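Why do we care about 3D structure at all? Because function follows from shape, and shape follows, mostly, from sequence. That is the central idea of this module. The next example makes it concrete: a single protein chain, its amino acid sequence, and then its structure expressed as tokens.
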Amino acid sequence: MELIGSSTSPFVRRIRILLANTQHTYTELDIYAGGRNALAQQTPIMKIPVLVDKGMHLYDSRVIARYLQQEHGLGRPLNWEEENQLTLIDGALDSLVVLLLSQRSGLDTEADAMYYRLQRERISSTLNALEESLNQGQFTEWNYPGICLYSLADWASFRELIELNDYPQLQQFRERFCGRDEVLATDPRSA
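And the structure:
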């Protein structure tokens, strides 16, 4: 089994954490420089992570996690509430990635352009919903949804896209799990 990705990707990190105690090969790619050709040979959508197992290429972190659960017994099936939680997490991450890539492209993401306004609105409303979920006692387990939430909070903080002080429950959640071996081993700051 081979996982292909980038150490700074929150989508890759969640799978690396999930695979922490499972035999696999991890292939690091710089997907914005020389790794584009290698990535194109693995996935037509040119996104990471990619999992290669038993001759099959799987392209999305949620699909990969489901596959690892079903085929390798990593975790348990998610219920509908957890699926919705992942949708919130992925929605925030997608918008944060748009802002980061736009900034790196020299675009003014603080402009009053509708596209960026919508991204900021989605980030704010989604993080507030996740903060409320934490207030209600959700995300108490270190399971796949918790791993995904941790990856979101830590990556957004690492990239300085959000101020975790504005989300005290999310900050406490991150602090609770930041010392885990698999979290330390996948920290993007050491990449």
